Amino acid sequence: MLPPYQGDRFTFERERMSRKLLGAAVAALVGSALAMVPFASVATASAKGGAAPGPASDARFGTAGSVTPTYGARTIPHWSFTYTDPTNGVKYTATMVGSDPRKGGSTTVKTEIIPLEFTFVAAGQDMSAVSKLYGYDAKAQDWDADPTTGSPNDVAKTLSSPIFAANTYPGDLGGDTGQYGDVFMRAQFGKIGSGYHVKLANTTVLPKQRFAVPASQGVAYQRVSGAVAGIVEGQWFSTKLQQLMGSLQIDPTTVPIFLTHNVLLFDGHDNYTNCCTLGYHGAAMPLGHGAGQANGQGNNPVQTFIYAAYTTPNTYTGFSPTTSPTRGIADIHGLSHEVAEWLDDPFVDNAVQPWLTPTAPQYGCTGVLETGDPVVGVWFPLAGNPDSAANNVWHPEDEVNANWFARNGTTPLGLSSWDGRYTFMGPRTIGIGGAYTGFASVAKGC
Fold this sequence. Notes:
Number of strands: 21
Order of helices and strands: HHEEEEEEHEHEEHEEEEHEEEEHEEEEHH
Radius of gyration: 20 Å
Strand content: 25-35%
Oligomer: single chain
Mean pLDDT: 82
Helix content: 10-25%
Largest sheet: 13 strands, mixed
């Protein structure tokens, strides 16, 4: 086994190389497929929280593809700003979803949920590494993972969750009312109680897409917690998703959300312990439909997209709905992470001065504005979850505000959070103690 965190650093380096190669990759991929960089899992969030999760931790998040849209591109509504980081004097430009909060306005972005059903077969997959890692006899099993079964099913629960339904948030989080992403954006830019909004409206649930997982590309097994989860190889999954988006030809002004039921990703052939990714977001250019060249001018389409696993409570070891707020890998946790990151970095091209935090050492030194990564696994409860196993609360993730990444460089522009805090949860984040007290100030360099 690799020394602690070395494996995760490698996957982050792989993503940085993927971004460097993006231009060549986009130019090379033509036809009816969607041009995108292969999936790279980079952000690892342990269900046990921020303390030393290691390379085989339970959950991680990633990105898949990066595009800087040309002027007039046909895509989601977005705005950009340039700030100077006061700690290094460098200017950075960031692009986010919606309209400029300094000018106000209300934006609604359409989404479409695409349920993904995966059928797994037990075919003698070697589970010895998993058994050794977790200390129990893990066995492959036949299993059908369908987010459209059950009452209510994962799709219905997602639509009724804070991602799409309005909730009133506690006073120490700003006391706002609205969807999770909208409330986050309003708090992040000091617009609580104003007419500024960035909302989601799910226009349809497309027919579920079925995939038979080859034994060489995935396995379902009962985890040490007793819950069953399926894992599929990340590159295999990414290829299927790319093909699916090409065939569905979703309007680029709409964001497809691909939803699985406890189906996550691992990296590498049969490397089941290099697991598990439960969400990523990305951007790509659908070519071959009159879009022109990837670097052309005019209204080139740019498609942004999200994948997230709806995870049932207790799937991951250490989860408890009533104890530490660093044990929240359940229900919409993965989707909330990706929605917030999509809002702040929809095209996965927002570079920042590299940061390093002991709450997520597995990232190493990273220079991207990904709001959920520094606080992976940290959550706050919102009432209304119909699942009693989750203590009838939802588990949306805490997020880190743009002013933390910018080292307060956004403040002179009038783009600071509602009370100057650096995370959505503010004092709650700091109150976890240990390394989390570092969120009382801006990001540290590497």
